[in-house]
Amino acid sequence: MKRTLLAVTTLLLAGTSLAQTKTLTVYSGRAKTFVDPVVQQFERQTGIKVNVRYGTDAQLVAAIREEGSKSPADVFWGNSMGALGELAEEGRFTKLGTALTRNVSSDYLPDNRAWVPTTVRFRTLAYNTGKIKPEQLPESILDLPKMTSLKGRIGWTVSYPSFQDFLGAMISKYGEATTRQWLEGMKALQPKDYKTSNVGMLEAMRAGEIDVALTNHYYIQRVNRLSYPIDTYFFKNGDIGNLGNATGAAILKTTKNSASAARFLSALVAKDAQTFFLSVNFEYPVIGNILQPTTMLPYSDVVKRSPRIDPTVLPKNIDKAQKLLRDAGLL
Fold first, then answer.
1. pLDDT of residue 200
2. Domain boundaries, the chain
3. Fold of 121-243+313-327
4. Is 218 annotated as a binding residue?
5. Could you tell me whether strands 244-251 and 116-128 are parallel, antiparallel, or unpaired per DSSP bridges?
C-alpha cells in the first residue's frame, strides 16, 4: 500500500512538473510593448514558457490558415474584432467556458464565446485645440466630408485594422453605397494617409501638418501625457464614428495545450493584466472595479456613444471595406 501511494505521489508530482515546463505558443497581433510584461508575469506565476510570434492581424490570420491542422499556435491574440471574427467564422477556435468569461463585460463578448475580449477601444476624432473648436465639428462622421474648410488638413490611417473595422461597421449599418459615397467625399478633401502609424499622425498634428485625425481614443490619451495641444471629440451617441472595437484572445482547436492556453486567457482578463493595459495604453478594461484616469470618459458613458454592431457580422464586411478602399485608390 505504501509503495502504491508513493508511486501515485511521484506521478502526481511529475505531472505537475511537466505542466509547469510546458511551452505555449501565442500568435500576437498586439505589439510587443503590451504583450511582453504580461507574458513574463504569466511565466513567473505558472512556470509555463511562452513563445510569442508577432505580426499584423492579417499576417497571422494568413499563417494560421496556411498552417492548418499543423499550426504550432495555441492562442491567437488579435488586435481587432474583424480578425478574431474571421477565424471564428471558419471554426478555428474552441468554445470558451463560462468560468473564463463570467467576469467579462458582455458588451463585446460574442454569443458563441469563441473568443474573449481583452480590452476595448473607441474610434474618435482627434483635433488640434489651437486650430479647431469642438462646436465647429459635425455631429456625425457621415457629415465630415462636408467640412470643406478642412481640405488637406485631415489625417487618417486607411491600412490600420481599426480603421478597416470601422469601415466594415459602416457597411453593416448603412450599406456599401453610402460607405462608398462617404469615402469619395473624404477623398475629395485630400486627407493625408499615415498608413498604420497613428502615433506619426498625431505627431504631424502637433507639428501643424493637419488639424483633425480619425484615430482610436487611447492614442490621444497617450499624447495628452506629453501636453500636446490635442483633444478628443466624440460624435453624437450611436454614431458609427464612435465605434467600440475589442482586442481579444482565443484558443485554437488544433492546440495540444488547452489547459495552459485557458490559464493564459484567464491571466489576460485578470485584474493585474487589465490594470496594466489601462495604465500603459489607456485601453478600457473588460472587467469591473478598475480605477480609470479622470482624463478618460467612464466606460459606462463611452459605451453608450458606440453603435451596437454584431461582432459576428463585422468580419464579413472587412473584405468589402478593403475592396472599396482599393476601388477608391486609397489602398
1. 96
2. 2-120+246-300, 121-243+313-327
3. D-Maltodextrin-Binding Protein; domain 2 (3.40.190)
4. yes
5. antiparallel
Q: What whole-number distance in Å separates Cα of residue 51 and Cα of residue 2?
A: 41
**137 in Cβ contact with 231 (< 8 Å):** no
Query: Which neighbouring-strand residues pair with 23?
Result: 49
pLDDT at 93: 98
Whole-number Å distance between alpha carbons of 257 and 123: 35
143-158 pLDDT tens trace: 999 999 999 999 999 9
Q: Which amino acid is at 193?
A: D
Residue ranges for the chain with pLDDT beneath 50: 1-21
pLDDT at 314: 82
3-state secondary structure of 241: helix
User: What does the alpha-carbon distance between residue 245 and residue 126 come to, in Å, rounded to a whole number?
Assistant: 17
Q: Is 54 helix (H, G, I), strand (E, B) or coil?
A: strand
CB count within 10 Å of CB 189 equals 17
Which pLDDT does position 18 carry in this prediction? 40
Q: Exposed/middle/buried for 165, CB within 10 Å: 0-12, 13-18, 19+?
A: buried
Give the whole-angstrom CA distance, residue 6 versus residue 1: 9
- pLDDT, residue 77, reads 98
Residue identified by cell 505627431 is 203
Consult the annotation and say whether 219 binds a ligand. yes
CA-to-CA distance for 116 and 107, rounded, in angstroms?
Answer: 11
Closest listed residue to residue 34, CA positions, set 221, 286, 262, 278: 278
CB 27, CB 53: distance < 8 Å? yes
> Whole-angstrom distance between the N-terminal and C-terminal Cα of the chain?
72
CATH class of this structure's domain 2-120+246-300? alpha beta
Domains 2-120+246-300 and 121-243+313-327 belong to one CATH topology? yes
The confidence score (pLDDT) of residue 311 equals 74
Residue 71 and residue 26: Cα distance in Å, rounded? 11
d(CA 292, CA 302): 13
The rounded distance, in Å, linking the Cα atoms of 255 and 289 is 33
Q: Is the pTM of this model over 0.70?
A: yes
For 32-37, which contacts have Cβ atoms below 8 Å and span 24 or more sequence positions? 33/280, 34/277, 34/280, 34/281, 35/77, 37/276, 37/280
